[in-house]
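Side project, low priority. Logging it here so it doesn't get lost.
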Amino acid sequence: MTKSFARTSGAFMSISLAVAAGGCVRRTMTITTEPSGALIYLNDEEVGRSDLTVDFLWYGDYDVVIRKEGCETLATNWRIPRPWYEIPPLDFFGEVLWPGHIVDAHTKHFVLKPGAPPVPEDLFDRAVEVRCRALESAGDG
């Protein structure tokens, strides 16, 4: 019984060490813009100003909105494909058993177009339109 217990304990310890010392995947996305310093939103969540690197958890489509004063707002998407080692059941080996760290880094550069300055007459017309709508809705209530 002592030999059996020792073998079982040894096997358990070996598996525990393999899992504890196992691999890890760090997924990062780096967004750079021209000009830099633009405000970045991923899936409607503000993540910071460019140039920036953030961690991500899943692969697939990300909605990207980039805003900077004096530039047109850019609304686009970015598809990050799943690498081969993240396909089940291979992902178990990459996430748990791989003996090192895997860094999955993705980089995307966006160029913002300069924004046209607003025409004062257009601003005035829009302000009058918003005022009229506000007064109409106040009269309805």
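Brief comment: The longest helix spans residues 120-140.
Revisit when time allows.
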